[in-house]
Structure formats: structure tokens, C-alpha cells
Specification:
There is one protein chain. Among the domains are: 176 residues, Globin-like, CATH 1.10.490.10; 119 residues, Globins (Globin-like, Orthogonal Bundle); 185 residues, no CATH class; 179 residues, no CATH class; 107 residues, Helix Hairpins (Orthogonal Bundle), CATH 1.10.287. It is 66% helix and 3% strand. Strands 4-3-10 form a 3-stranded mixed β-sheet, with no helix packed on it. Strand 7 and strand 8 form a beta hairpin. Helix 20 packs across helix 23 and helix 25 runs antiparallel to helix 26. It is a multi-pass membrane protein.
Amino acid sequence: MKHPELSEPDPTWDDPERDLGVAEELESDEEHTDGLSDDDDDAAEIREESINAQSVEPSQEVTDVDDEARSEVESTNARSLEMSLEISQALANDDDDAAENDVESIKVDTVEVLKLSRKVIDKVKAAWSSFLQCHKGREAAGEAIFSLIFDRHPNMQSLFTTTQASLSFRFIVALDRLMNCLDRPNDLKATVETLGFQHMSLNVTTISVAIFRTAILRKLKDGLGAECTSEVVAGMATLIDYVGGAMVYARGISPDRIELLISSWKEAHEQNMNMAGAPQTDGSPTSPKNDVSSGSYEDLLSLKQHDASGSSGRSGEQLLTMNNMSGESPGGPPGSLKSFGKNMQFLPTSFGGMFQVNAAVMGHARAANSWMKDILDIFEKLVVNVSSFRRLKEESEILVLRLAMYDKADIDFPKFKSCLLAALRSTLPQSWSTSHEEAWTWLWDNLVRMLQPNMDKPRIYEDVLDNAMKRMSSKTQFKIRQDVYTLFFELAPAGQNFFKQSDTRLHFIAELVVNMTLDLFKDPQRMVADISALGLRHVGYGIPLDLFTPFVSSYVTVMRRYRQSELLGEAFQWSLVLISEVLVRTIKEGSTTVMKAIALNSTRSLVKAVTLAPRGQRATWLLHVQVGEQYISPLIWAIDAGSINVADTILKDLLTIRADRMRYYYGVDELFSKHPDIVKRLADRAPVLLPTLLDGLVWRSHRLEKDGQKRRSNYFVKHMLLDPKGNFSTAVSNISASGDPVIVSHPVVVLLVDTLWQGVVRRQFVYSRLWNVLGLCVFLLSQHIIPNIIKTSGASRSLWNALFACRMFAYLIGMGRLAMLQVHRAYIWSRNTFRQILSDIDTDGNGEIDKAELIEAVYRFKDTVKSEINKRVAMMRGKDELASIEESKKAKANQEKKLYNRISLSAMLLLGCMLVQEPMLLCANSPDWPTTVCPEVSADLMYRYSIFAMAAMAIHWLMLVDFAVFSTEISAFLLVIREVVPEVKQFMVALSFLLLLFGSIIAIRCTNCPDGGGNFSDMPNAMLSLLSISFGLYQGDYRDMEEDPVLLICVFLFVTMAVILLLNLLIAQLNRTYEYIYKDMLGFARLNRAQLIVDAMESCPRARWQQFMASLKFEDRREFDEGDLGLPGCLQTFEPSGTHRQVTDMIKRYGGFTSPDLPWPAGDNLRNVDSDPRDTESRLEHLEKVLGMISKRMKKKLAKESEEASLGASGYSTNLERTNSSGSSEFSSFGSSCSSEEPSH
């Protein structure tokens, strides 16, 4: 049963076969080329109808028509009756041609109220019901009519793109609605005007209307026979003429009105832009310009977005005015004239501001900030798409969903109309006219008639879908998803080539589709944005649009099988069709030639696509595709989709400098403004493209300067140093984090690192490391110099005081500073880690953490700490295999930093151990204090203290290793040492095993061996003796062991295995490791410096950073060649001429016209072949095409010659026979013809 709140349910949902019909509308690429409306309520209108007929008999119910008008109506009715009788007579005589040519009864100059007598109405309705019954359904009746039309006029089939079943059903449904309104003249007129508004984009003519009228009447007469009386025929003809006349009338007035609507709307918003571009008197900034691609719709959208941002000459005052009028003014009640009068001095000039002002004056300030705001958000799209009913219907349904979020009693469309017209009048006071008034009234009245029938649907449909989803079991849901794909693959077998994921993934997608149908009602604004974004992603997938129709049809059909009520099927279909329409439209609008080329992964198609781009918009074509409020970047999509060749082509095209006589075109600014994180994206997802990006940031002159010794080079590194907010960019950090020494050795990165090091970091680094130098000096004084002076020169009170002061400085200042650094690092890491954990577990997204979530976060943090500790322990163990060096390149970026952290931590711990056993503190009670000699200080304690002091001294020296960063050569040498340490470790492990093996063996044999050849009496001494022999520290000789042959043999075996085998194997491994690491040695050294710079920049004062950036003068334009003033944003250097050879101009220069709206001349890819390998490939492809064409022509020519040769041979034999019969004269003529054709052979 129908829901009681649906006053007039849509009849298009009554039949399950409607599923295919509605879905098939998604196939059409043109807007309503089939002549039928896509509206679910008005979907069955005739595509070619445009007839306006008058009533047969005036009714007494028309009480608002005066006598003169009534006389005119009666006169018109008489003429219509007479014409209808003529049509009836023509049909009775089977003269359909005459009926089709009779178009005089179609009134196309106005739309009046149609009044038919009750008798005629009853007969027409009864005849129509009988007609539907005899054809057993609406589809059969409609197909009979369309079959007759197509049989008599086959050319009419080209006007329809959807299936005949869909057309037939919707056509009959529309006639049903007209029949229901026959006894309500005013409703009938409104319905007819709405149909005319919906079909005004169609080429409706009186001839096409007459064809439909004749077909309908013929089928009525054939189906009903005698029941189809002349009154029925006349009444039906009058109705069809009336509807068709309204369509023709609407089409006649629509072009001028549409043009007036769009022009006035654009003018109103252009006025906002002009005001925003005026000089600011109050310091308020203007709104940034939208970067949407050019086009009429996009221009209007950018104007609307600019207006919505509140930009005008007095944006600050406007905001104050709006707040005051909405109830925040102390001078009067909300929206009062008193409040308005106080703010007249701040009267806005934009359309949005004037709308708010007029709403406040009319007492609708609260509505203007609620449901009227939602209408204004979509009204732009309604205006610019008024000529496209498909888009108009889609936007109106989205608007209905958004309005359903408010109380229906609060929504008053006449109020919005009043505010809209008042705002337009105020914004366009000079150009406003009665024509504007009529056009905007006509638009809004028709929009309201489209909105009102659907206002109750969202609430009802949402409740029905929500309840159905909750009651549906998981087994039923699984069965539905399974049946959907089964039916879909039956309807569209080609879909299996695109749905290649696993079965679980397909079920996941199907479940998302079902959830989207319900979420569309709950949060329409967010869902429309998500659906648009999904559509843009499908552009990159390259999925054919014709697959959406069977997919939607499959879903609707399967859902109807499992429906619990008919209303559930209606709700699901209404939501899913709307989702499909948004998806298909987004895909169509987003399917630019560039996106299609990316989907094909074809560089050739991409090059052809951008060839058509205006030179001023070429970069935008490659970086920005926008549909509504959603956009996608072709470059990022190509990277994410793995189309590396296409992405490489895009980067090369963007970073190619082109020039005409007036200006240079270089896409680096657009690239980094659209994608500030482009370096991170490439480093993470496509490292192979990083060299392409970096190469494109360099320009080198092909001319030499300074006696041929130098070459001018410009490095466009502004965006590699600065982010959009003026802070230090993360580009260097991302490159260093990649751990690739080849990328770090790129000239661009080298220049960046050296510039930052010399300009900012070097001084800051020296200052930060002076503490280490001071700590080392103080520690050296306290542990060696002062104790040595005391020992040699004698003790004195001043020396003991100095010793105590130095040691306290090392403990309190040195160890305290290191402890604070470690605590700070731990705090920063814990804070960031815990924040990340909290954001991960905040599943509800409300930003609040409850007790359960907090407990879970604590446990996760505990596990994270354990895992980090295990990682640190594993790192201290080192790597055992050479292949792991390649796998751990990214870890090398932070290796120096981590090494320094570990060294500083070790220094802190050792100083702590020394503090615990400090002799001077233990002797605090001694009368000779400060001193280190007292009963509390034992020899063992001094021994332990000395061990800790030795280790701490070594650590203090190791902390100075960071100064190696001043020289890349020294840093590279230290890197080599660090990399070969694992090989030495392996050697020591093997040597230890041999020492244990032979030490235990020899100790058993030599319990009483002489000590001449070494002490082998026990295992420790034997191992020590063997180790001495291995390292060449053994002072004896092998002859000392001649008395014991067994011992001598064991020692010889040990030396052979340890010295000859293991030591030479160590040398080989060191050599191999060195060869491997040598090629990237300088790269890793630069990697170390880059990471150090990144760490130092985190603590760089902003004033110093701004001073440094000002010194680089990126805003100044730099010369390309002498006298050729080029582009800003670069650093200019003069490199040695032989470092990077360049024999051709890297700038592509063009003559001709210099307008930015013109594309670059053809043949762009054939220029500068030597500078771009891709151009060489294009030329080779061109040559291949030319050779193919030559080959085809030669084959055709050879075939033609062989055919001529065969014809010549047959002609020869024929003429020979003629010669035998006719004489020698004919033979001679044949010979002459043969001689004339001879050269062709």
C-alpha cells in the first residue's frame, strides 16, 4: 500500500519493468534527445507534442473570467470543435495524411485554461480506460502507438535514444496524469506548463505533434471501434493540441528568457567581482580567484563562489550588517527596520549581501540563514542548466533532499521568490525590466512545480529504507548482492572485464552501494560531494558509461524481488537512480581528453590532447579537472594509477619553458601551488619520477660566457625552499627521507643543501656543537690535565678546587644538558605517538575520548614503546648481510642523527656512573677535602672509576664526529668505515670460534708443556697465546714448540685457518663492500648533511629565516641570456662549461600571435629533438606512419598495374580475333593503341 502522506504517488513506480526504463536514461549522452522528460512523475510526456487546444464547451466553473474573455473562449471553443470534427471525419475516412497535415487547431501563441464539458470529460476518460484494458497494460498501449508512428515515419526513430518499452511506458503515464487533471482546469494548465518547461529544449513542431495526435486517435479508433465516438475523438484531439501547443509556446519563448536569465545572473555576480577588485579602503583583502577551468558554467560558478565568500568593497562591514540583521544588533529586534536603518551606511553591493538585506527587511532573516541558504547554494546550477532538463531534474532532487532536513512548515517558497526578485532588482537597478521580472517569475514558478510533488518523498523514503535495512538479515543481504552481480553479468557480459576483483571485494562494493542509498537521505550535501568525487575517480578507471544502466537495472530488479512493500522499491529506485545520474554526469564532465589519455596510459594521446590547450591554460589542463565543487588532478591520478610514462610526460610538459615574443610560460608555479607535496608524493609512490622533476627545475644556457669557461644556469628552487605559507618546505626532508644517494647528488638538491648550509645552518650548527667542545675540554681538564699537574707538581688548594669545579661542571652542566635533551626527545616522541594513537581510536570522530578509548590508547602506547625498544636493540646488533644495505637506504637518512643520539645517551649514562663513584664526593668528610685520597676510596673503586672515565672520554671525542659534516670527503670516509664494521664483526665472530676450538684442544694436551712457545697450560692462556699469534704479537718462535709435535700441528692449523683463510676473506669482503659503497659514498655524505639541515631548520628562528629568504631575492627576474630578462623564483649560478654540456636552447620559442588564449603552434613535439628523447620517439613514430602510407600506396599501384596488364592481355586477344575477321585496318589501330599504352607498363 502507498504511504498515506504521499498525496499523489508517482505512477511510474507501479510496474517492475520501469526499472530498466529509468536506468536506460543514463545511456544518453545528449540531454533529452529522445524528447521525453526524465522526471519520475512527468516521465511519459510526448517528445514531439506542442499543441494548445481550447475547450469544446465552456464550463460554469470558470468564475474568474470576465464576460469579454468568456466570449472569446466560447468563440475559440467553437472553432476548436469544428476543427476537431474535421479531424474526426478524416480519421473516419481512413485519411491519416489529412489528419497529420491539419495543424490549424494547434494554438502556439499562448496558454489558456482548457475547459471541457463534463460529458466530454467522462467519455474521454472512459474511452482511455477501455483503451488501456484492451491493450493489457500501459506498455502495450504505448508500444502500439510508437509502432504506428515509426511505421509511418521511420525518420522519427532517430529522435529517440532509449528503448521503445521505456518510451511507451512513460508516454502513457504522462497521458494518465493529464486525464486525471481534465476536470481540474487550473491544475491541468499548471501541469501542461510544467511539461512545456521540461521539454523546451526539444525541437517540438506542430507537424510532429500532429503525427502523435493522429497515431493516438488512430489507435483509439482501431481499438475501441464504435465506442470511439466523434466526441471522444474531438475531446482527445483538443487535449493533445492543448498540450502540444503549450510545448511549442514554451519552446518559442524559452531561448530569449534563458538568455536573459543567464546574462542577468552573470551580470549580478560580475558586479560583485568588479566591486571586489576595487581598491580597498579598509584593508580587507579580496577573495582569491577560483582556479576552475574556463567555460560558461565554470565562469558562473567561480562568480558564485566569489560572491559566497562575501568579497565586496566592504566585506568587513557586510559581515557586521548581516550579523546585526540576524538578531545580534543591540539597536533593535532581529530584522527590524531600526536595525536595518542603523546599518544603511554599510549596505552591501553583492547579490548574496542584498539577498540577506532584503530577507532581513521582510522579516525572513532566520530563514535566509537556514533553508534559503541551501536553495542559494544550488540555485546557481539551476539557473545555468535551465535549458537541460536532465541536469535541472537532478539538481532539483538534490535540493529536495537538502530541504527535507528542515521542518516542512518552515519552508515557504513565495518568501524565497520575494527575496530573490528583490535582491536582483537591487543588484541590477539600471538594467532591470519587466522582461526580467517575467523571466525570473517563470523560472521560479516552474521550479516550484517541480519541487513540491517531491517534498514529502525524502522523509518517507528514508524511514522505509532505514527500517528495511534494519530488518533485513545478513543472509538476505548476501543473497541480494549475489543476485545483483549474477543479473548484471547476464545483462552486460562486458562488465566482467572491469569487475575483476575478488568475490569479497565485489560484495563490499555492493554493500557500499546499498548504504549510499540510505546515506543520501541522511546527509545529502556530504553524499553528493562524495559521489562526485567517486565519479571523478571512475574517470581515471576508464569504465564505459553504458555499464551503469544494466548495473542500476540489476539492483532495482533484485531489490524488487525481495521488497517488503512497494514503497520500499520506490524509495530504493529513486535514491539509486539519482546517485547514478550524479555519477554519470560527473564522469561525462570530467572525461577530458587528458583524463582519457591517462586511462589509456598513452603518452601519444596525452600529447595530442594538450596540443589543443590554450597556452595560458595548458598547465591547468594537466593539473586540474573540476566538476562542481570536486576536482581531480590528472598528474596525481596518473601517479596513483601507476601510469608512470604518462606522469613522466606530464611533468616534462609542465616543466618545459615555452616562450613567444611577449611572455614566458613555465608550469612550475602551477605545479607547486596545486600540489605543494609533489616531492613527497613522488618520493613515496614514484621515486623514478624524481629525476624528471628535478631536471625540469634547471635551465642551462647553450651559450658560453667568460671566454668559454662558464655556463649560465638558473635553478628554479623557490618552491623547494618555501611552502605556500612562507615556511621552510618539506621538500628537502622528503628527499633525505627517501635515502637515495643518487637523488641527493642531483645538482638541484646539492645547490639547495649547500645554500641552506652556508646561509642558515652552518652558524647554527657550530653554536649547537660548541657545548660538546666545551664539555670535552672541561672533562679533559678534570680527568687528565689537572690530575697530572697535581701528581707532578704537588697538590695545592687551588688545583684541588679547580679539579672539583671541573668535575662538577661535567656532572651538573654536561650531564644535566644531555639529560634534558633526552627527556625532550622522549617527550616529543611520546606526545606525537599518543596523539596518533588517539586519532586512530577515535572511531566516532567527535574529537572526544571516553574512558574505554583512553584505556585502549594506553595499551597501544605501551605496545608501541616495547616495539621501539626492540627496534633499537636490533639496530644496535647491526646488519649481517651486504644486501641489507640496499634495503635500509631510507634508514641511512636518519642514521647519523640516531648515532649522535645514542652517543649522547651513552655519555649521559657514563657520567651518571662516574658521579655515583666520584672519589671527591666520597671524601667529603675528609679534613683535607677536596681530595681523592681518603679511607672511603678503595683501589677497586678507583679502578672502576677509571674504567668509566676512559669510556666517557672516548664518548666525548666521538661526539665531535659531527664536525665531519663540514667536509663531504671526510664524512664519506667515516661512512665507509661505518659500513665495513659489520664485516669486521663477522671476522671476529669466526676468529672467536677458532680461539675457543683450538684453545680448548691445546689446553687438554699441554698440561705440562714448556712455556717457551707460549703459555698453553689452561684454556684462557691458550686462547690469549693463539690470539697473540694471530695479530703478530707473539715474540717466540715455532722452534720453541718442536719438542711437542702435536702442539706444533695444532698451532699450524690454527694459523692456517685464522690468518690465511679468515684474514684474507676479511680483506676480500672489505674490498667488495668498499666497491659497493664507493659509488654512493658522496651521496650518503650529502644525505647526512641534508638530514642535519632538516633537523636544524626545525629550531631556526623565523626572523633569521625571513632574512635569509630576502637575501635570495626570488621575486627578482633573472636573465636567461644576456639582455633576455627571464622568470623569477630562481637562483642563478655560473657553472664550468664542461660540467653539464648543453648544445641546444632548452626554451621552446615560437613566433606568430602571442595571445594566451591560443594554443601553441602545431608540431610542438617535433621541435628541439636533441633536447628531449620523447620528441625523437615521436618523430620516429611519424616516420613509421609515413613509411606505412607509402607502402600501402605502392601496393595499390602494383595491384592496379597488374589489373591493367591483365586487361591489356584480354584486349589483345579480342582485337586479334577482330583482325582475323575484319581486316588489317583494325589490326593496325589496335597496334597503335598498344604502343600508346606501352609506357604505362
